[in-house]
Specification:
single chain, 156 residues, mainly beta, ten-stranded mixed sheet, 10 strands, globular, disordered N terminus, disordered C terminus
């Protein structure tokens, strides 16, 4: 276990020095009740760089599948759909939030409990990756518009 933590820490440090133009803010995973096998991760991605970036995949050991999703209105009904990528324009901000773009965790290996952290790796079209710890929060916390400490998970 000690070696896994050390290896992950090295990975996190290595990824933060390569692309300081991206910053992740307000990231959290939605806590789940027992028996629920899916959840979602929400965040704000800020691109301080001169080039547009595209998030093309996400990975986490906590779920069997991790997909990029969006909610869209189809014939008067809100539907969730997988998307190929999420654009983060140069000097722009992309918000992944409930009812919009998000990272979907499918086939959770165990329920997500408030106070836990899960590891998430974001994969970008240019081949770069960013790994981070994601705090798990209750659904009620997001409904109250709770603010999150950006110092916990910056990628800068």
């Amino acid at each position: 276990m000690k070696y896994k933590i050390l290896a992950l820490s090295c990975l996190l440090l290595a990824s933060t020095s390569v692309y300081a133009d991206l910053m992740i803010d307000s990231i959290y995973a939605r806590a789940t009740p027992p028996g629920v096998s899916n959840s979602a991760i929400f965040m704000t991605i800020i691109n301080h760089g001169e080039s547009d970036r595209n998030l093309v995949a996400a990975k986490s050991d906590i779920a069997e599948n991790v997909e990029l999703h969006n909610h869209t209105m189809v014939d008067g009904m809100m539907q969730m759909r997988q998307v190929d990528s999420i654009a983060i324009s140069s000097h722009g901000t992309t918000i992944l939030k409930p009812g919009g773009l998000h990272v979907m965790l499918l086939g959770l290996k165990h329920p997500l409990k408030e106070g836990e952290q899960v590891v998430l790796t974001l994969h970008f079209a240019d081949g770069s990756t960013e790994s981070m710890f994601v705090p798990v929060q209750k659904v009620m916390a997001e409904m109250k518009g709770m603010q999150h400490d950006e110092d916990k998970n910056p990628i800068n």
